[in-house]
Amino acid sequence: MKRKLDANDVPSAEANEGTEHKNIDNAEDFESLNLDPRLRQALVKVKFSKPTPVQIKAIPLALEGKDILARAKTGSGKTAAYVLPILQTILQKKATDPSLKATTGLILVPTRELAEQVQKSIATFAAFCGKDVRSVNLTQKVSDAVQRSMLADFPDIVVSTPARVLANLGTSALSLENLTHFVIDEADLVLSYGYEDDINALSKAIPRGVQTFLMSATLTAEVETLKGLFCRSPVVLKLEEKDDRSADISQFVVKCAEDEKFLLTYVIFKLHLIKGKVILFVGDIDRCYRLKLFLEQFGIKSCVLNSELPANSRIHVVEEFNKGVYDIIIAADEQEVMGTSTQSKKTKEAAEEDQPSSDDEEETTNAPNRPDKRRKLSTKGKDYGISRGIDFQNVACVLNFDLPTTSKSYTHRIGRTGRGGKSGMALSFVVPAEKFGKHKPTSVPTAKRDEAVLSKIVKRQSKLGHEVKPYHFEMSQVDAFRYRMSDALRAVTRLAIQEARAREIRQELVKSEKLKRHFEENPEELKQLRHDGELRAARIQPHLKHIPEYLMPSKGKRGISNEEVGYVGFRKTSENRIRKARDKNRGKGKNVRKSIGGRKVDPLKTFNRARK
Known about the structure:
Elements (H helix, E strand, L loop, with lengths): L36 H9 L7 H11 L4 E4 L6 H19 L8 E4 L3 H14 L9 E3 L6 H9 L4 E4 L1 H9 L10 E5 L1 H4 L5 H10 L5 E6 L4 H10 L4 E4 L3 H5 L2 E7 L2 H13 L6 E6 L2 H12 L6 E3 L5 H13 L4 E5 L11 H10 L8 H4 L7 H5 L17 E6 L6 H8 L9 E7 L19 H14 L4 E3 L4 H4 L3 H10 L2 H23 L1 H4 L55 H9 L7 E2 L5 E2 L11
Parallel strand pairs: 1-6, 1-7, 2-4, 2-5, 3-4, 5-6, 8-13, 8-14, 9-11, 9-12, 10-11, 12-13
Antiparallel strand pairs: 15-16
Helix pairs in contact: 2-3, 3-4, 6-8, 12-21, 13-21, 17-18
């Protein structure tokens, strides 16, 4: 049911911007939020015991029908903060009119991957609602006829990108006349991904009086634009992110030469200095494959995540990483990396226009004064992509192989780890100015500004109460591995990278088709589909996979670093004692035993036959 409007088309139940609602901080658990028992049952099933700050503040306000503009970091529970009130309203309507069929909720997201996540969240929270709640994800790659049939039954909630909504509105397959809830998730990214024209068209199609949620990690000029288009006197929630200060994320910086990035990465993974799942952020797609081929030389498996891969494959890579199928993702953190195929050209054009600002804070304050709208919308650098929106779970470490171009992007990157009360680590490689450009094959243009960006990162993190510490590698202990690093890098030629890139796309296109058709009916076979296989486009050197004893540091792993990180990995490190003993005794012979004195004796030679 829509909210009533007064003579000036303003909702009667309005709240002043920034006002705090009484008693919203008293909700210590979901029971106190007065949600439907079926929703509480679903929350218990997924072990949601205590609401997050954004949920505590947003859900009561949403249930009162107020528009909400919420700023909260990625991973803070923003999805549940708007999904639960929408589901609650739908269930209340169905209780009075069980035959009601109408699309009352529309959720817009910037990428297909985020649409998949939101759709799964809806399914999770509505698990005990039976047929009372039906939702559709319009970003699936199906024919127009199939999408029309999906919408013909009037699903309660539609999840989509702006372009897909407009396409279905144009064919009259989707009707918004009964819409009561409208959500834009990751609002600060929607315009940056090239949806400006689509959003302007949608602002005319959305009925007046619809309750609006704008969820964002930052309050930028883009969010202000959306607020003016869709909201009427919204309650603005600027959460202080108290959990930011208590988050157990150890942040370290290593200053090294460009080729030493590869050397240290090799040592870190081969000697298992970091335990658990790791995301390596690199600057562009070529760097993805250079690093993957480099690690393959040493038998270190990894998978790649970038904008060239089919969307089905990208979604599956994230899902399998979250399940623990593989531990290392090499991600090209570019703006268009997680964009839909229909928007990739726009995003790429916007990214080409981008120039990093002299100060991160000026990106927001100066944006409204720029006359060129295209340039205003492209103020976000290419380093916005993987670091935002995608739900990576149980990430032990974020390794910034290439430092991001802004301190804001750094904050979003490291937000992938240390979530849910778990500890995490962020390790960043920084190229000093005097070492930039010394090793051409491994050089990237953005590294020229590493020290300037690092100073902003340190300043920004100190304001948040965090310290970025130097991490000291004993390079004298690592130098023994240097010639192996050089051998591996020489094998990873530019031609090898191009071939690997093409081969990966061909392989993933085949896998993507299988994911789309066959694996929908055979979900168990997904376990056999991996994305971390060897590309074998570089010259294979089998001897590099094994580390001889003479190369090991004299003091072991402790000899590489002179300080303790204090990080505990997610994976269980205790060994199976029975298996260890079995492996130790294998090949020693079954009839060999120790005598009382500890010497090994042959029972056949010491057998004494009793004399008659």
